[in-house]
Amino acid sequence: MARLFFLAVLTVVLAFYFNSTASRHIQSTLQSYLQESQTSPQAAPSFTRKIIAVGDLHGDLPNALKVLQMAHVVDAHGNWSGEIDFFVQTGDIIDRGDDTIKLYELMEQLREQAQHSGGKVLSHLGNHEWMNAIGDWRYVYPSEIATFGSVAARQKMLSTGEIGRAWAQNYSTASRLPLHPSIGISNTDYPPAFGVEDKIKHSPLSHAAVSFVHGGLAPTYPHLTPYPSAINALSRSLLHKLQSQSPQPSPHPPNPYPGLPSDTTWEEERMYGTDGPLWYRGWALESDKEVCSSVDGVLEKTGVRRMIMGHTPDFQKIVSRCDGKIIIIDTGISHAYGGALSALSIHYTLTPADPTIGRTPVVENHGQKQVWKETEVVTAIYEDRDEVLVYNEREVEGNFAGY
Ligand SMILES: *[C@@H]1O[C@H](CO)[C@@H](O)[C@H](O)[C@H]1NC(C)=O
Ligand SMILES: *[C@@H]1O[C@H](CO)[C@@H](O)[C@H](O)[C@H]1NC(C)=O
Ligand SMILES: *[C@@H]1O[C@H](CO)[C@@H](O)[C@H](O)[C@H]1NC(C)=O
Fold it and tell me: What is the assigned CATH class of domain 46-398?
């Protein structure tokens, strides 16, 4: 009887002991697992980048804000949301509407706020910014001139004033945005500079980048490379010549078209020409056969996977051609057109292909090649729906840890 009682007590004690140690063990394992996967970037070295691009805005602040809210670039107050890494605008903020001043102010506010939270705004000059700098004011509403006060005040604001200085400092004509930082920061040239050439050219991510211009990068345009600095150097020098004209040419109309300054070089003139990055429409207007057979040459040269542009509107939708190698994002957002409110989203991720690799500290993998899963999802965002335009997934091998 005593023996039986003893055994019963022993069983309970043992059960309790093992139960508690077992559960403690499970608990602590669970805890450390959760800590590793949640808090330590070393433990899960996957990389994510979110880009939102928006096309022609043409003087319409309310529609611009609707689009930026819809795409989570800004919050309900119109402040930078912090939810994305890059906001790209492809030019033509000015003309056909009255909100010129407010829109350029919004862009500088977002640029500032983005900087403070590790994001970035990339702004581009469209053909309409250039037209206004030249004195070609054919699409300027008298009501818009009134928001500046006078023609002279508007001329000043667009040359040496706040908007003109923002164009010179914070806008470019072309940009190249790497999707992964191992191939450089935004506007890193392709072909790569001497010194890093081998490292970048031989990386499986060498062309993991996208380009943005207002019109398009024509195969016939002679100053594509190094991309984008060749175009942006011409853009900077021509803008400087235009903005430093004193007095500024009298605007057309009613005066005659002033044209480019007399000291404009032929390269600068070509930059503003019909097959230049501001005006070219070939990617939008030519046949699939023609476009898709010539696109790869330009992508290869400029070191990108796809080219994103505005300028040629489709009032219903963002147009994707040749499997998303060409994406045209002007949907006539401004009330001047009444087209679709739209934004383009690019969501890029690079993740260790084997999930167990993710729990190995990066230091142990230093210098070793791993297999990574690369995903790029390009989505058109509208008021009532999202539409996936590109879903690319592939495996790449390399040492991409630590970003
Ligand atoms: C065993 O552990 C569970 C969960 O911790 C607890 O609810 C249960 O009472 C324990 N059993 C014994 C015999 O202590
Ligand atoms: C955000 O917007 C609100 C309302 O316009 C403003 O009061 C606030 O200062 C803004 N926040 C920042 C960080 O700019
Ligand atoms: C250009 O952007 C920087 C960074 O946001 C800002 O400090 C500067 O004032 C801007 N320049 C103009 C002229 O708006």
Answer: alpha beta
